[in-house]
Amino acid sequence: MKSIIVFLWFFVVFFIESTLTTPVYGNNPALSTIDFTPEERSYIEKTSSIKMCIDPDWTPFEIINNKGEHEGIAADLIQLVAQRVGLKIELYPVKTWEESLSASKSKQCQIMSFLNQTPARDQWLIFTDPVFFDPNIIITREEHSFIGDLKGLKNESVALPRGTMVEERIRRDYPNLKVILTKSESEAIALVSEKKASLTIRSLIIAAYSIKKEGLFNLKISGQIPEYTNQLRIGILKEETILRNILDKGVKTITPQEREAISNKNVSINIQQGINYSLALKALMGGSLLLGLVFYWNRKLSTLNKKLELLSITDRLTGLFNRIKIDSTFQEQIAHSQRSRKFFSVILLDIDHFKSVNDTYGHQTGDIVLTEVAHILQNNTRKTDIVGRWGGEEFIIICPNTNSKQAISLAESLRRLLQAHEFPITKSQTASFGVATYQKEDQSKDIVGRADTALYLAKNKGRNCVEFQ
């Protein structure tokens, strides 16, 4: 009887785990070949290990577990970087984030694992390119209204973990909010659930993880702050420029697929695997109910996650992608171009004389023009093109595997479509276009800068035309 129970118990556990978890990412040896300078190779050969400070209580990004080991998304990503550059990472033990910051400032560790770059941190650290992107969202209870602008809130409180990038920026940007400091992410979210704080501003992944783990379905996303997107990097002591360059090269080898697999692995639900025969028998007797609940909650959590993700990357007015999605797409396309040596291009466009539309017809008409332009762009580009609202009356299109000639042709086609379109109320409307193509060693600011220069060249030439830089 006991052997049958054991067999069936493992079958149920295996079934549940296969339903709720994601396969672990694989290492890609092809990406391990990195072109180091002689100075960098010498550094790697002479360095036995690098000491690293982390946030010991930042699930699912990173924690120090009961065995004193580094776990989480950051742990897996940084281990991947370390493997590819040939360095060994040694964990510097701390109990709190504040202790980790203090140890870094006093140079007891050479790197910090997973943090946003801020003016305060620039005083003693230099940074790699982002290792991971994650939007910050506004979380409230269900009954709270949508928050379009935090500056409009009065007599409201925000719960935030102490010493974070968000705390630093909220104090600077929104002095109208009362800040309640907490020791952890989960405490901040719990205060909102318990009506002890009006809202919290946390990462999308943290929010999804906490809602799953704690069952806090009385919470909702009430808004987002695109400019607060987490661009999580490795921080390195200022004097360690060679180490920064080495790690930066390792970061650039990580693919979007590896980031996604690592994220999914660490946000999945863990199931206790120790066997209690009495409990197992009860579980098997109610097996059909258990499996029914598994399917129900799996579907509910899956739907919630999809809604959370879609909301975080969508412009509310036009339905196009927002800056969060555009920024992450840039990083993906740059990494792809560096590996494959294939081109991608960027089209930046600005609606001509849009201010006069708002001044003459009102902002509601201006919104109609924006949505009409968005539909034209979305319906006349390829499925592989990423179309987004860049800000105000500016739109952006990222065109994978597209050279300059092809991008200019697409921009000219879109220009003619906009010119020929009959807009509600305003009737006619045109736009100016700037086009740029990826060049070796470009960062997103470089290619956007050239597209922006081309756009304003088009404006200066009389508008309603396409220019390339």
TrEMBL record:
Segments forming domain GGDEF: 342-469
UniProt source species: Giesbergeria anulus
Keywords noted in UniProt: Membrane, Transmembrane, Transmembrane helix
Name assigned to this protein: diguanylate cyclase
Domain of life of the organism encoding this protein: Bacteria
InterPro entries per UniProt: Diguanylate_Cyclase, GGDEF_dom, Nucleotide_cyclase, Rev_trsase/Diguanyl_cyclase, Solute-binding_3/MltF_N
GO molecular function, one term: diguanylate cyclase activity
Reaction(s) catalysed by this chain's protein: 2 GTP = 3',3'-c-di-GMP + 2 diphosphate
Keyword Membrane among UniProt keywords: yes
UniProt-listed Enzyme Commission number(s): 2.7.7.65
Name of one Pfam family that matches: SBP_bac_3
Transmembrane residue ranges: 275-297
SUPFAM superfamilies: Nucleotide cyclase, Periplasmic binding protein-like II
UniProt keyword S-adenosyl-L-methionine present: no
